[in-house]
Amino acid sequence: MAITRLSDDADANLLNDVVSQDDHKTQQDVFLKELVDKVDEAIDQLNTHISDMAVNNAKVGITTAQANAITANTAKVTFPGLGTTSTTALAGNTKIPTITVEAAPGLTVGFENLQVQKTGTTVDLKVTDHTGKSPVTYTSVITLK
To answer: How far, in Å, CA of 28 to CA of 21, rounded?
Structure first.
């Protein structure tokens, strides 16, 4: 549905008469011509947007490539696992850093040597008390199954 430009609708305006009388143009005639030109530019842009919207609204469904990708993802029934090799999620050779936090003034808690295995996970717990004359460290191994 295109909108008719003013300059193309000769039956509805006197623009063509104004344009054709070069010798007798007034300031109002020149203004009218420039105004009609600007309105026509706006109508052209509006018609372009109307065409673009019609094309966009006509889009339905998805492409074959999108459908194939969805099908491939839906067909996945396994997870590669948390790792024992460099090719699995969270690769088995990923170094997990030691975590140490100050739990209270002079008291640190550390978790280190995380070992993820198929049968369970272990982590070393280390609590160090720095409030006395010399630090005292307590250790334990936490096993998760």
So the answer is: 13
